[in-house]
């Protein structure tokens, strides 16, 4: 099992990176339970890839470091994405990374479990999760976990954040475990064994 954290934080230290680390710390052991040992975790810091992302849009080709990041995201069993809030939405760097990924590999996130999270200076921007992040990853055909996590400045150290982290990370872990054990439907080579609709409907009617 492998979890990749994509952090769009710009500062050092970064509350965005901190939130991603805390989510991964809970999700990693839960994703492999009851097996011993946590899932592997890799963190991608987008600020280190900002120039490469910009060059991708002008040249049409990602550099080696950005290609490695795309491969990590595409190969992950679960994804944790965290962005700071700028102008009531995700950051431009965050959006550009996933835009470039979509151009390079349109199916990279198809069916992939994704936990969305964001940080901001005030709780008024918490709707960014449902108004911006959730639609973006639904468009990319990811499977977005029900609980997103928003952390305002006043949430750090306050009651409530730990509970949201536990719930969201647990949902991601459960989804990862469920998809890893799911079996594909048996393939049908012909339609000979398909019951006609009329017969199925007749079987539902009361006798007599």
UniProtKB/TrEMBL annotation:
**Keywords, in A-Z order:** Flavoprotein, FMN, Oxidoreductase
Which top-rank group of organisms is this from?
Answer: Bacteria
Q: Which GO terms describe its molecular function?
A: oxidoreductase activity
The NADPH-dependent FMN reductase-like domain is annotated at 1-156
* EC identifiers of the protein: 1.5.1.-
What is the name of the protein in this document? Answer: FMN reductase
In its UniProt entry, the species of origin is given as Streptomyces marokkonensis
